[in-house]
Known about the structure:
alpha/beta, 9-stranded mixed β-sheet, 8 helices
Amino acid sequence: DRLNAIAxxxxxxxxxxxxxxxxxxxxxxxxxxxxxxxxxxxxLKAMVLARFNIIIAGGTGAGKTTFMRCLINEIxxxxxxxxxxxxxxVGLDRFADLHPDHVDLEARPANVEGVGALGMNELAINxxxxxxxxLIVGEVRGDEALTLLLACTQxxxxxxxxxxxxxxxxxxxxxxxxxxxxxxxxxxxGANLLVSQGIDAVIHVARLEDHCRVVTSIREVTGADKxxxxxxxxxxxxxxGRAEPRYGFSAARIERLEAAGFDRRWLAExxxx
Length: 273
């Protein structure tokens, strides 16, 4: 759980508590909750097993961390996982039977004297030295974006992270901004090239007006053209905001999915099945 308290600079003292429901931790549970359909379940499971590099996007309170936890728990137990978080929320220690070989790293703020800080980027760099089968970053919002993307382009497949964005396509602009904040000061064209080489798919989750959390979009990254990241929206939001089929995956990624046991006939199923 995460607590935030504020006083003296507000009209009255205010406390906010962010609690995670760790009972929701498997992808199949999300079908009954209305978050995903059965075809999307089979697709997402295959994406994890095929070691796609995945970004989970959404707004505050959309359920990004819970959704990522469900994806993580589809990873085979034989793999070594390293998580990097600003505050520990994924909670892999609660699922030691599913992931007996895992290490969770947590960023550390500076002390009252302004020293001792250890940021997300330093942790991500160290995580790559710890022989991970998968690198998982709780939330990307700074220069750790560069470390993660470089890892994804250098053979560290199966990585996951979350990003604040209002759509699956909006992720690309956020990553441009984060990469422009790094010491290297990436131009949009350079940032887009890095994203296109490192990321396979972006999944967007949202909380609807009835408070139901749903997957609204699944987007495949296919390339870059200067100031644009080229992508296909495999699933897009219907009139209710839930994901429905739109376009097909590229042939190369279909082959990867099928090698992981996916039946491409699920892509032809209506999302409302």
